[in-house]
Specification:
Length: 239
């Protein structure tokens, strides 16, 4: 396992749903530890449990059984209000469909999480502009979403996820609506964020996206089937 300081620990996580008389087991005994500055893909087919795992990691859902520890907080024991506070403070979300407010500018969209945190207006603007500059869109801060390309809209969404300086970025199929060239640009941006110390978890069904990450967790039928980290190659003469 990686030697990074632990940010996330899942211990024997189960998530079940009742469908009439049937019990659906979406997650079944999941154990995962995720360290600071890791770059991870969670990959699986539709119905594998990867979306349920993302919802639990993102504090959007709670496990039926098991322990979830995030930055030392026992998340599985928190109230809804406390869950919301942890989610807003520690987690940045990136979605396939961007989820931007259509009548708000790029800058206003990026400022939204700071409004919820009650950051003063002048400071909100400065932090949002800094986040847009990080993703290369500072000059387009006044544009509405429909004035931006798909790749630019996703960059706005990434800036919005970054603006609160979260512990982790959770990206749900972040390139699903993008062409291959724009996908390469977004993945290159993720590489830069990793170099800057960010922790990123990408949930995907695409093997080529997962292969871009440094660690790949494969999930099927609610179980972790494999958890593999890439070992950096050592150039000849440096061993």
């Amino acid at each position: 396992m990686p030697n990074h300081a632990s940010v996330i620990t899942l211990k024997q996580i189960e998530r079940t749903y009742e469908m009439g008389d049937e019990i659906i087991r979406a997650l079944d005994g999941v154990d995962v530890s995720i360290g600071d500055n890791e770059y991870i893909a969670v990959i699986g087919k539709s119905g594998s449990g990867k979306s349920t795992m993302m919802n639990i990691l993102g504090c959007l859902d709670s496990p039926t059984k098991g322990e979830y520890i995030l930055n030392g907080h026992r998340v599985h024991e928190l109230s809804d209000n406390d869950l919301s506070a942890v989610r807003n403070r520690d987690i940045g979300f990136i979605f396939q469909n961007f989820n931007l407010l259509p009548r708000s500018t790029a800058l206003q969209n990026v400022m939204q999480p700071l409004i919820y945190k009650e950051v003063p207006r002048a400071e909100r603007r400065n932090q949002a502009m800094e986040a847009l500059n990080r993703v290369g869109l500072g000059e387009r801060h006044h544009h509405l979403p429909n004035q931006l390309s798909g790749g630019q809209r996703q960059r706005v969404a990434i800036a919005r996820a970054l603006v609160t300086n979260p512990s982790i970025i959770l990206a749900d199929e972040p390139t699903g609506n993008l062409d291959s060239n724009t996908t390469s640009d977004i993945m290159a941006l993720f590489d830069i964020l990793i170099e800057q110390g960010q922790t990123i978890i990408i949930v995907t069904h695409e093997a080529d996206i997962a292969a871009h990450c440094k660690r790949v967790i494969t999930i099927s039928d609610g179980k972790i089937m494999s958890d593999e980290s890439k070992v950096p190659s050592i150039p000849e003469g440096q061993s």
